[in-house]
Amino acid sequence: MRLILLGAPGSGKGTQASRLKDHLQVPHISTGDLLRAEVAAGSELGIAAKEVMARGELVSDEILLGMLKSRLSRDDCKDGFILDGYPRNVAQANALDALLASIQQPLEAAVQLEVPTELLVERIAGRAKAEGRADDSPESVRTRLKVYNEQTAPVVDFYRNHGNLTVVNGVGELDEVFTRIIEAIDTAASVG
Ligand code: ADP
After folding, report:
1. CA 133 / ligand 1 centre spacing (Å)
2. Residue 27 Cβ < 6 Å to ligand 1
3. Is 74 considered catalytic here?
4. CATH homologous superfamily of 2-191
5. What's the burial of 61, exposed, middle or buried (CB within 10 Å: 0-12/13-18/19+)?
6. Tens-binned pLDDT, residue by residue, of the chain (192 aa)
7. Distance between CA atoms of residues 98 and 69, nearest Å
8. pTM for the full model?
9. Which of 29, 134, 11 is CA-nearest to residue 81?
């Protein structure tokens, strides 16, 4: 299964993606995690990305595409993947389309987790206390939500227009949301 998960910061896509990977037996590829690993390793890429991420802005499309190409070329992606955090703007969506077409691995489903903004803010504030992520400061959170609305929301329309979007209600217990996602994927797969 080749799947992308779309949703605002705090929508729960990371949590759901890591459960989905066990269910679907394909790797969970989080571009945020890949970038945080580069930052932690102090690589050139990580050094370039660090400040941008802390501000809550988008790291360059070029860096992301390079990182993604190399990740998708690994052996464990041969039966599919769950992409979390990519694409985040329409240019990235087009780049992903071209990349997947070139390896004859078209996307099978795009699932958007829908959560009202007030709840997003509440969830991120809770996570900030628990995890202390550098980009969970109030200012960075505001920027990330703004970036989402301005740049990532159009990606949802992109997949709607391509006919493979399913919108899932992201409000509720983790198990409940998980079940909704599985149902959405099963439906998308049977419609194919
Ligand atoms: P969240 O979903 O909470 O925003 P992520 O872990 O997905 O968190 O991303 C954290 C940060 O990593 C983003 O704010 C951005 O700076 C960077 N990032 C992740 N994915 C991308 C991407 N596809 N394009 C550009 N920047 C990205």
Report:
1. 12
2. no
3. no
4. P-loop containing nucleotide triphosphate hydrolases (3.40.50.300)
5. middle
6. 999 999 999 999 999 999 999 999 999 999 999 999 999 999 999 999 999 999 999 999 999 999 999 999 999 999 999 999 999 999 999 999 999 999 999 999 999 999 999 999 889 888 888 887 888 888 899 999 999 999 999 999 999 998 889 999 999 999 999 999 999 999 887 765
7. 11
8. 0.93
9. 29
